[in-house]
Design goal:
Elements (H helix, E strand, L loop, with lengths): L1 E4 L8 H14 L4 E5 L5 H8 L11 E5 L7 H9 L2 E3 L18
Parallel strand pairs: 1-3, 1-4, 2-3
Length: 104
């Protein structure tokens, strides 16, 4: 299964979320591999620094981190290849109307 962490905006936590998925999956005994296409390579650095967390080439679960652009050819290819796309977002400060109480 290929899990893609994608966003058209930087700073929303996609590399952080990919890392937390990697650690969690590792802790429950799942073999993972990563493909870090983001030029910052944060996911790669964090995995290398995480004690006991390792990657397995060609594992059943691949975590893919991409640059914060959706118009990049690498990103488009990763989107097409992904089984699941995870898009971290930062909630708006504005309260959604759906959560406002209904008038009586």
């Amino acid at each position: 299964m290929k899990l893609l962490f994608c966003s058209g905006k930087g700073g929303v936590g996609k590399s952080t979320m990919a890392f937390l998925f990697a650690v969690t999956l590792h802790r429950v005994g799942k073999a993972i591999s990563i493909r870090d296409l983001d030029p910052q390579e944060s996911l790669t650095a964090w995995i290398e620094d995480a004690p006991g967390v390792g990657t397995t080439p060609n594992a059943d679960i691949e975590l893919i981190d991409v640059p914060p652009r959706i118009d990049d050819t690498q990103v488009i290819s990763a989107i097409r290849a992904a089984d699941m796309i995870i898009v971290p977002t930062i909630p708006s400060r504005r309260r959604p109307r759906l959560l406002e109480p209904r008038p009586q």
